[in-house]
Each structure stands twice: as C-alpha cells, then as structure tokens.
Design brief:
This protein is mainly α. The protein is globular, with a radius of gyration of 23 Å. The protein is about 80% helix and about 0% strand. It has one domain (about 60-260): MetI-like (MetI-like fold), CATH 1.10.3720.10.
C-alpha cells in the first residue's frame, strides 16, 4: 500500500503530461485531417479522401507569393536581429560597462510587452519617423520583437565561455576583431543557430505586428486570415498543414544543427 501511494504522484504527473500532449495534438490532427476531405466545406465525418487541395494550394500563385514574401521578411529580420542581439549580448557580458542590468532589461522588454501594444506603439513610431507601412516597417517591428531571444541565447553562451580562449588568441597575435571572428563567433554558433531559427519562426508566424504595419502585399498569416474571412474550407487547412510541417522540419533541423555544433 505504501508503494502504491509513493508512485501515485509520478502516475498523476505522467497522466497529466499525456493529457497535455493530447490537448496540443488533437486540434492539429483534426485540422490536418480536414485538408484531405473531398468536399468544399469542413464537417465530420470525412467520407471521401483526396490530395487535390494540396495541388490547388501549390498551384496558387497568391499563396506562393505570400510564402516568398514572408521568407524574405524572415530572412531580413533574422540578419538584423542576430547582429543587434550579439552586439547587445557582448555589451552586457562586458563587466567594465556601467548599467548592464538596465541595458539587458531594455533589450528584453519587447519579449514581455503584449503584441497588440507593441504593434500600436510601432505604428505610432513609424509615423513619427515618416516611414511608410510595408516591408521596411514590418522588418523593423519583427526585428525589435526577435532581438530579446537572440540576446538571451547569446548571453547564456557567452557566460559559459572561458576567458582564456580570447586571451590565447591575442597572445598569438590576433587583434580584437580577429579574435572575435575566429574565437567568439564559433563558440557562439550553437546559440546563434538556435536564435536565428527562432527569429525565422516568430517572423513567419507574426500576425499582429504585420496587420498593423503591413502594406498591400500580404504575408502568409495575412493571406490565411483573409481567406478565413470568406469561410473555412479544406484549402485553408491544406495551407495550414503545409506551414505546420515546414516549421516543424525547420525546428527539428535547428535542433540537429545545434546539437552537432555543441559537439
């Protein structure tokens, strides 16, 4: 009896974990299954199965343009956020700089500000600096949102970096820039890979900021939102399934690269 009560918390924790997994996966499974329905509407049961909706989506020029546009924004956002995030992490990691805690807090602030508030403030900001809505404004907003994640990952990696690595590089004749490129950046690479992939995924998935700052050209979330306004259909489910599979593959590949870089 005592053994039974000792195992009870572990059993409850395991059951709670699998309930949570089911809570996450069940809606996704239903969404993906509807993309195979041979009908123009969404409803159960699924009597006939088909792949034609994926063919329709992959031939949809509007969808392909939105994917390319979102990918371009994500790429530009990742480059900008990585450069700025690494620079802030280096500043915060430097013990000789005053106010490091305040700099770190300000850098991480966009991660805790609600997306709607962030989008409204960015909309006001671009009007003040006379920047039109569109690609540049979206990249600016996405970069501000992505920088904190790069800062946290890079700073965590920097704090575990032995100081004698850069000291050895300088003793061998390397100037600070060469030591940074040849020693610091390779050491930071596992964290940078994870941060960059995270920037890509958050940028592609960002709807609120894009809605407030976007122009006439829709990103992928904006396109799906516009199509949903006309009613749900298996074509929308096929789009969402393609995006889900692509982002999952990107995340798994990022995990693989990160593990390999750490080794």
């Amino acid at each position: 009896m005592r053994h039974y009560f000792n195992d009870l918390p572990k059993t409850a924790l395991t059951a709670g974990y699998w309930l949570f997994v089911a809570y996450l996966l069940l809606p996704l499974t239903l969404m993906m299954s509807m993309s195979f329905k041979d009908a123009n509407f969404i409803a159960f049961p699924i009597q006939d199965w088909t792949l034609r909706w994926y063919g329709v989506v992959l031939q949809d020029r509007q969808f392909l343009d939105a994917v390319a546009y979102s990918a371009f924004i994500a790429f530009a956002t990742t480059i900008c956020a990585t450069v700025i995030g690494v620079w802030i992490a280096l500043v915060v990691a430097n013990e000789g700089i005053w106010g490091r805690a305040a700099i770190f807090a300000l850098a991480c602030l966009p991660a805790v500000v609600p997306g709607l508030i962030n989008a409204i403030s960015m909309r006001i900001f671009i009007r003040v600096i006379d920047l039109p809505t569109g690609t540049a404004a979206i990249i600016l907003a996405h970069t501000v949102h992505a920088v904190p994640f790069v800062v946290i990952m890079a700073l965590t990696r920097l704090r575990s970096m032995p100081r004698n690595l850069t000291d050895a590089a300088r003793d061998l004749g390397a100037d600070p820039f060469i030591a940074f490129v040849r020693v610091t950046i390779p050491y930071l690479m596992p964290a940078l890979l994870g941060g960059m992939i995270f920037c890509v995924l958050t940028s592609i998935d960002d709807f609120v900021r894009t809605f407030f700052l976007g122009g006439y050209k829709p990103t992928l979330p904006m396109l799906i939102f516009a199509k949903v306004q006309g009613g749900m259909s298996p074509q929308i489910n096929a789009m969402a399934t393609i995006v889900l599979i692509a982002t999952a593959l990107i995340g798994l590949y990022a995990e693989y690269l990160t593990r390999r870089a750490r080794k």
